[in-house]
User: What shape does this take?
Amino acid sequence: MKNIVFSAFLWMLFGITLLLAKGVSAGTEIINTATLEYQINSVQYSATSNATLDKVDQIIDVSVVWNDTSPIIVASGEINRALTFKITNTGNGNDTFNLTYDIANPSSDFIVTNPRIFIDTNNNGVFDISVDHEAYSITLAADASSTIFLVSDMPTSSYISGSISSNAIEAKSTIGGSGAPGTIYPGKGTNGVFAVDGMSGGVSKAWGEYKMSNNLGVKLTKSATHSGTEVTTGTIVSYNIVVELQANGSADNLIITDAIPVGTTYVAGSLKLDSVSLTDASDSDSGKFTGSGIEVNLGTVTQTTGNPYMKNISFEVMIS
Amino acid sequence: MKKGFLSVLLIFTLSAYANVEIKSESFQEKIINKQNTWVKAARVIPGTKVRYINTISNNGADTAENLVITNPVPNHMRYVEGSAKCSGACIITYSLNGKFFDMPAKLFMIENGQKRVAKATEYKAIRWVVQTLGAKQNSSVQFDATLE
Assistant: This one.
């Protein structure tokens, strides 16, 4: 097949119109005829013009979009986890698109294994390995869409929570798909019309994301000491809370709260994080006294091998 | 029966010796050397603007009068507002149904129960009226339409 790439000026011709791909079906014949009535020496005559015939070329266009609303949460070792994509034939004629996957995104924190592409056979938008079928090409009529899945297994190695893996599906027209808008294919369109790669170049690729989320346990160890040998009215009790993570990983917005025990009164200004005082007010530092207890926002916390996470929160109360 | 046959024969005869012809051509815009140029159309794609030009040629020895050229907007095409022209003097009217023609301000559509002036893209036909076309003279009328 000989592909002819439009020269620059011809591309300019199509530049605007290709934005409007879809529309009239490929192969449609646009016919124009005009009629004429006139008089000569008061005698009425009529005439009909020839019919002009313009044929509609096939625009080759495709769109692939990632359809999940947010990264798919996965855990190490899980199998058959699906990313959901939508493919649409945005051209104006039937086309068959080859489907390929790409799991080698340099920005990925981890690489999935056993990637496969499935078509949503029962069209319910949900991946079901017992119903949906594995396929690497799909035929779509003009404007038709289908849900497709990129299904992968997760690596068995441990990755910190929040690790991302970006993976893509690419659809490429089997009529065109040069990637260069304006490339024409004489006689290759529906019913032998010319075909031309549209704005997508007949190729579309979309990335979707898996997000690793290991169960990240938070361990709190609370201890208390008090002044004097006996606990009586006026005794100051010092509490210490040790905050630790039980696995490698990351969590956002970790907030520690502790209510002041009944029969005690919070000692103003006693709240500390790792021995650094925090004000009781709700302000720019991470701690505050709420009136009924203390609250410390530790923000995003991360633990990796060799870098264990640990924080100490302390405050005092007085026995009423 | 005989009278009817003669009428048909007469009409046929008048048409055969009409001497005024109409020829239709379609063009599409192309940019050559940074200039817009209209070239013969043959293959179009959705969104293409096509210019239809009808050339009227009076090949006879007598002046033709009251020439009425009617051009339905082709199926799948939408008339481009203000594009209907003629090479000489003419009166241009439009139709929403191919039967009744009038000026744009007098063409109305009903939308959601409300009457409004029709949009140019809703025109179904265009009509040009040219008063006279002298012997051995040519004239032309044209309009643009966009492929849906």
